[in-house]
Amino acid sequence: MKADVVVAAGDNTHSWIDAVYRSGGAPLGRVVAVCNAPEEAALLRELQGRHAELVVLLNETRLGRVASWNRGLLLGERDVLLLDDEVVLAEGCLEEMLEVLHGSDRIASVAPLPSVAASKVDLASIPRLTEVPSMRGPCVLLRRVLLNMIGAFDPAFQRTDEAQDDWAMRAQRMGTRHVRANRAVVGRRASAPAAPAHAGLLLARHPHLPEQASAALLGAEPHAAPHFVASRSAPPRVCTAAPPDGEPREHFQVLYHSAPIDDAGQLLALLESPCHLVLGQTGTYRKRALLFAAAHSAQAVITASEQERAALIADLALQPARVEVESEAGLTSVFRKVVDHPCEESLRHRALLANFLRSLGQADHRLAEAPRGR
Prior knowledge:
This protein is of the alpha/beta class. The chain contains 14 helices and 14 strands.
């Protein structure tokens, strides 16, 4: 499998091209650089002697980034890696992104994990991919079949992030999804600017996008890879239901909940936490259904004895590896284990259950607002 690279050339492109060829490896096809300035094109053409697959296009009139991307996107038959010339690919990044893309014909695009720190650690134990609401960013791999079906970016959008979001929503309507390849890592020479809020034409076409984007950040699944990377330089940070000193839960990797859950609203709040969930004091639950739901969503369940552990595994049909007996050494090893080796089945169950509970709440709200018959 190979992918072509498309870049809207800028001041850094000339020096960046060699790095792309070094890191891209065997999966790298053509590199298509689209230039606005003749001087840029001339500098890049000097590199064609040692990079035969380098294609340099010069725009006849000055074009924005979206229109320049489109010139390169529609030139070829391979999948396309859209790159910014500030992005540095880690070794094996493109190969991993291609494997994730072709792991399912329902995947339209793949983004990498943006982290310089992650390039220095082994990421084999974390989930290979995470679903994301859109495909905006400086490094995105697009499936050629989808480009042929729905076209390239809509030039009506001047902002690149909105053009990417619009393409993602059009692809989503075709029954496909967008994912992040958690084991494909990129760095960036300059820090990325904060993305502005969705607005204007984008919202008129896709009014559901802000809610979808917000919901996609809830729960531990989208944060499993960053949690793993953060814990390489320090022990996992653990909070209870209320983080100390009012610090945001986003600063922690593990939520240890040792009190019973009394209603669906409380359960949903725990499921939507960005932390990995560890449950304790399971013998105090009065509502068995809530314990069942929480235990299957947790990365680990702590019991007081081997007898309690065996009973819980049998009663709730839990995986034995996820039920631990609290030891004299404390829970530190359990917290480290759930961050280092998160259970994908538990993460997926947790995300699906949270979606279900949110949909029930929305249905109840609509029923409450509906006009009553006489």
